[in-house]
Amino acid sequence: MFDLQTLPTTSAEATQTVSRSARDLTVTMIRATVQIDQPNGDGTRTVGAGFLLNAPRADGTPRTVLVTADHVLSRMPDSEARIGWRVELPDGGWRFDPQPLIIRDAESDPLWTKPGDRDIAVMEISAPAAFARDAIPIAWLADREAFDTTAVGPGDAMRTLGFPRGRSANRAGFPILRVGRIASWPLTPISAFPTFLLDLAVFPGDSGGPVFWTPATQVSPVHPCVAGVLTQEVIVQDERLRIGVVVHADYIREAVDLLDQKAAPAP
User: Fold this and answer.
1) 183 near 199, Cβ under 8 Å?
2) Strands, E, within the chain: which ranges?
3) Which single residue of 56, 115, 118, 162 has CA 20 to 30 Å from 255?
4) Is the dihedral of CA 213, 68, 180, 131 positive or negative?
5) Which Gene3D superfamilies does UniProt cross-reference here (predicted)?
6) What tens digit of pLDDT does each residue of 228-263 get?
7) pTM for this one?
8) DSSP codes, 17-69
């Protein structure tokens, strides 16, 4: 991350620095994104994406939260799923290291929370130290005014990370990065438009991935802005329209608030 006051003064240098920063911030989002899966018992598996959020508790103690789409977890019938951790090796390589993730309690009740009928799920998890450090700050989530204050609108590019049809970018299990453009308007108020469309082919395994943008100019925020969660593709009469549906990120905040309420002791 760079300080705006120390940006190069020439236009070419400024553009180069911002471009490099955008790449670095995209890598930050890549490192925070994980695969979630559960074997179906017939040689297939249910796969989704998720990302890690640094969302401290009300008393300030650290907490790592997994964010995904509600339907990713609800379509996994067993209490134990897997989360795709990755281990960096001494030689600079990486090893894919999926580990158990308990998603339901002993009574088979979900351990995640969701905000109303929005396709968002969040749950507190215990993450390896490296992944806890890679969790993105909750401040990076777009709020209800983000589209208006940043003048982001139809036709603007958004980046998304996922595991289309269970595929990863490499054997290390990193997500696949793709780019789509906002394909709907208006985008606000989100009370009236809680979702927006993205011009992007969506596949099973993409659901739950982050949709975000990174700084494009030196006056932009010096961090990515997570616009929402990719939750589904648009299909009309069995025809795939290559359009994705994104639930606004403010509903992630709402789900985290519900998680806090769930954890709060009874009065």
Assistant:
1) yes
2) 33-39, 45-54, 64-68, 80-88, 94-102, 121-125, 136-137, 157-162, 176-182, 195-199, 210-213, 225-236, 239-248
3) 162
4) positive
5) 2.40.10.120
6) 999 998 888 888 889 999 999 999 999 999 988 876
7) 0.89
8) HHHHHHHHHHHHHHHHEEEEEEE-SSS-EEEEEEEEEE---TTS---EEEEE-
Model pLDDT for residues 43-101, shown as the tens digit of each residue: 899 999 999 999 999 888 999 999 999 999 999 999 999 999 999 999 999 999 999 99
Domains delineated in the chain: 4-263 (2.40.10.120)
Distance CA 154, CA 197 (A): 9
